[in-house]
Design brief:
single chain; 6 helices
Length: 131
């Protein structure tokens, strides 16, 4: 007996939808881990490259922030409860570094140097733009 005869055609749609959502989550996790750098690596990059280190850090933080916002938007579209709400407020690229630094200052004992930068940025966004 096939799934279509036992659950109807909507069962197949739900199964494929669940499968697509699971595949997207796996891809997000893999993509996030493959390019993730730690807080220590970010600080080292900024300190060792005197000419461009600060710009590299800013670019990385902007990309990580945009990635976090896109992952959050995807999760909300998939039915998850929103964790951050901009409510019409602007979030500009220049705000990535102050958000990151502020979160590290506020919760200095929470973060270890080997933790990913994305974790800090997501927590900063959730705290700054709480729903």
């Amino acid at each position: 007996m096939s799934m279509a005869t036992t659950t109807g055609t909507s069962g197949w749609r739900g199964w494929w939808s669940l499968r697509r959502m699971l595949a997207a989550c796996v891809l997000l996790v893999l993509a996030g881990q493959s390019g993730a750098i730690s807080i220590r690596e970010l600080r080292t990059l900024e300190a060792t490259d005197k000419d461009h280190g600060e710009a590299y850090v800013q670019y990385y933080l902007v990309g990580a922030m945009e990635g976090a916002l896109e992952a959050h938007a995807f999760a909300v579209r998939a039915g998850a409860k929103p964790l951050m709400c901009l409510n019409g407020r602007r979030l500009e690229p220049r705000m990535a570094k102050p958000l990151f630094d502020g979160e590290l200052r506020r919760n200095a004992g929470l973060y270890e140097a080997d933790m990913p930068v994305q974790l800090v940025l997501v927590n900063a966004l959730v705290n700054a733009y709480a729903c």
